[in-house]
């Protein structure tokens, strides 16, 4: 661009913003445009690629994205004609573009001053190719307005440096932008636009760079992990403590980068999870009491995070922390049912204890006749129906209960089959549940 | 013995290297966060792109609250909170739909709930939050039935037969035994078995009130019910 003299150079501030003359106001902006010329023009300039195209009341400015310290301008005064944009079939496939015509001098420069004084002018058609997603039709219509407005013909009054164009000028004398008046509003809008677009582009670039670094970290972490695993198997026990120490550190680091390693027999997981594990064990005591000794893991997730308010823990954090309980001496445990449901159970509410209570419930005369449902069990055990159902199913699995599916629903009965001898099917032992059942059933007048 | 000491020193060297690399990574992430934390918060497309790239690289930014990602970018809280809200909505709607809810409906209910939040929640965000919840058991999963996605919040396993019925139900919100037999070419026994299980699990409701005496099975999850369901309790 340095060699191109066609356009009028424009000055920019250190942060890449164009310097405007007094009274000049930015009106619109298109990002990612190319500036080209028609092939059949004798006068030519090297095409400008990929830059911001800014419309002001006085000029059209092109700021290259790659080289933000240089900019060129086309004064609106040299525009002789703006072509109306025609929609054609061709335009569907190409990037939108619009054209306008300017006067150029014989020595291949845009006319920078009063046309009256120069002879031998040529017309050059400039094409603006809009590759970005901006509203170019709006830009074009604003361009018409600005061109017709001829703001450059009204000279600003020369009354002292800072005061005069106080309300109109966007740049104070110290070069800083002043957000005042309509100019200020327009400017804010554009700044927002421009910064959104620019920052998203920048954001993606930064994201790429970050991901490359993350990839490196992942590879490094893998290498370290392999080394530690290999090291622990070959080195003697005396080095073990140090190994363990660094293993936990290692886990912490992996966690920081975002690599989850499962809790294994050898490792105790990250220090973070160990601490969380103890914290959780304490937290969960009261809810467990209230829930009768068993809570759904997902309920704990919600409860814990709600209590925390901020710096919430992830589901993985919770799962890891709970699985660490078996390594510590805590009064709670994590339990997974066949259905996939995971619960936190208080160790005092062991299976044996629950089965005892269930057996007591299911051998009552009512229950012997009609069985129990999940809600009955729930009421007796003092836990949620869903949890009760899990217990009933487990008890069935252990041979304590039998299920009965009927139009009345899903009910459970005490398992009598264990007392029935195959060889003597009708023998009822005097003492046993079978006889109790017979007594209970006959009492109701079934037979 | 010397060799062991040497080995330890070498290990220590590596540890220091790792620490250094970690510090560099962290500061790079800090820079990124300073410039683009807002972009991630406000722009669902950028957010989704961010996640895809993390997955490609092999890191899980939502794995732990302790991770740099959650700490510096602050997206952890966003998704974990979303998880909590999704669980609450699923629980609240379970009496009605048996634990299976249309993803769109879930997102709508979520957005209503989060009206005060300026952060937009996309379907992609919901899907990610739900995929994280999976690890807690309870069967949180997204299943595809026909063209729609359903979110399951109970451990009920649905087999292919059930899925086909659900897909059929998406047209009108209900099916009849005849329709199932006719459209899927099943025997009546097969249709009734499948429908009975769906009833048992609470996913369907029976409607015997039509003049033609044909029983209709309604599926709350398959029809797009507007959220005039009342309070989220």
From TrEMBL, chain A:
It comes from the Eukaryota. This is Vacuolar protein sorting-associated protein 36. It comes from Citrus sinensis (Sweet orange).
Automatic annotation (TrEMBL), chain B:
GO terms for biological process: protein transport to vacuole involved in ubiquitin-dependent protein catabolic process via the multivesicular body sorting pathway. InterPro entries: ESCRT-2_cplx_Snf8, Snf8/Vps36, WH-like_DNA-bd_sf, WH_DNA-bd_sf. GO terms for cellular component: ESCRT II complex. It holds the Pfam family EAP30. Belongs to the SNF8 family. PANTHER family: EAP30 SUBUNIT OF ELL COMPLEX, VACUOLAR-SORTING PROTEIN SNF8. This is Vacuolar protein sorting-associated protein. The lineage of its organism: Eukaryota, Viridiplantae, Streptophyta, Embryophyta, Tracheophyta.
């Amino acid at each position: 661009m340095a060699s191109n003299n066609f356009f009028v150079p424009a000055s920019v501030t250190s942060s890449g913003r164009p310097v405007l003359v007094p009274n000049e106001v930015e009106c619109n902006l298109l990002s990612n445009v190319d500036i080209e010329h028609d092939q059949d023009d004798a006068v030519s300039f090297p095409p400008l690629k990929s830059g911001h195209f800014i419309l002001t009341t006085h000029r059209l400015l092109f700021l290259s994205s790659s080289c933000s310290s240089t900019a060129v301008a086309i004064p609106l005064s040299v525009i002789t004609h703006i072509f109306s944009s025609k929609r054609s079939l061709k335009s569907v496939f190409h990037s939108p573009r619009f054209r306008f015509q300017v006067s150029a001098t014989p020595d291949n420069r845009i006319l920078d001053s009063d046309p009256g004084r120069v002879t031998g002018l040529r017309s050059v058609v400039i094409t603006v190719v809009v590759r970005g997603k901006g509203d170019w039709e709006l830009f074009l219509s604003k361009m018409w307005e600005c061109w017709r407005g001829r703001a450059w013909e009204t000279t600003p009054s020369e009354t002292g440096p800072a005061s005069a164009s106080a309300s109109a000028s966007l740049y104070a004398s110290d070069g800083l932008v002043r957000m005042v008046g309509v100019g200020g509003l327009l400017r804010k809008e554009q700044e927002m636009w421009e910064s959104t677009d620019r920052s998203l582009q920048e954001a993606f670039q930064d994201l790429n760079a970050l991901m490359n670094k993350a990839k490196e970290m992942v590879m490094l972490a893998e290498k370290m992990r392999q080394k530690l695993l290999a090291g622990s198997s070959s080195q003697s026990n005396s080095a073990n403590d140090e190994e363990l120490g660094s293993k936990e550190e290692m886990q912490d680091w992996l966690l920081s980068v975002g690599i989850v390693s499962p809790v294994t027999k050898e490792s105790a997981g990250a220090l973070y999870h160990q601490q969380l594990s103890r914290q959780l064990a304490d937290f969960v005591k009261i809810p467990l009491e209230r829930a009768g000794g068993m809570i759904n893991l997902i309920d704990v997730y919600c409860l814990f995070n709600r209590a925390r308010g901020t710096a919430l823990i992830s589901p993985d954090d919770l799962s890891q922390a709970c699985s660490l309980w078996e390594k510590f001496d805590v009064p709670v445990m994590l339990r997974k049912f066949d259905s996939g449901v995971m619960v936190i159970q208080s160790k005092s509410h062991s299976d044996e204890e629950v089965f005892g209570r269930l057996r007591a419930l299911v051998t009552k005369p009512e229950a012997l006749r009609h069985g129990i449902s999940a809600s009955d069990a729930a009421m007796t055990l003092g836990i949620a129906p869903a949890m009760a159902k899990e217990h009933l199913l487990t008890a069935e699995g252990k041979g304590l209960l039998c299920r009965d599916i009927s139009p009345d629903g899903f009910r459970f009965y005490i398992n009598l089959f264990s007392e029935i001898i195959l060889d003597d099917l009708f023998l009822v032992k005097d003492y046993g549940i079978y006889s109790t059942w017979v007594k209970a059933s006959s009492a109701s007048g079934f037979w | 013995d010397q060799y062991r000491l040497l080995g330890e020193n070498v290990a220590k060297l590596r540890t220091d290297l790792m620490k250094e690399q970690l510090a560099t990574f962290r500061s790079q992430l800090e820079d990124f966060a300073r410039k683009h934390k807002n972009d991630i918060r406000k722009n669902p497309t950028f957010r989704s792109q961010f996640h895809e790239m993390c997955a490609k690289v092999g890191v899980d930014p939502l794995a732990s609250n302790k991770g740099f990602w959650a700490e510096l970018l602050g997206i952890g809280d966003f998704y974990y909170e979303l998880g909590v809200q999704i669980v609450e909505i699923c629980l609240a709607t379970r009496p009605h739909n048996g634990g299976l809810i249309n993803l769109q409906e879930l997102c709508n209910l979520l957005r209503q709930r989060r009206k005060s939040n300026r952060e937009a929640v996309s379907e992609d965000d919901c899907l990610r939050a739900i995929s994280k919840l999976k690890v807690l058991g309870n069967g949180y999963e997204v299943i595809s039935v026909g063209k729609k996605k359903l979110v399951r919040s109970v451990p009920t396993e649905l087999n292919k037969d059930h899925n086909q019925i659900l897909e059929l139900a998406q047209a009108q919100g209900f099916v009849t035994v005849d329709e199932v037999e006719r459209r899927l070419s099943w025997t009546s026994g097969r249709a009734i078995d499948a429908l009975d299980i769906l009833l048992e699990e609470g996913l369907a409701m029976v409607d015997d009130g039509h003049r033609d005496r044909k029983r209709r099975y309604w599926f709350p999850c398959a029809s797009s019910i507007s959220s005039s369901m009342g309070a989220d309790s």
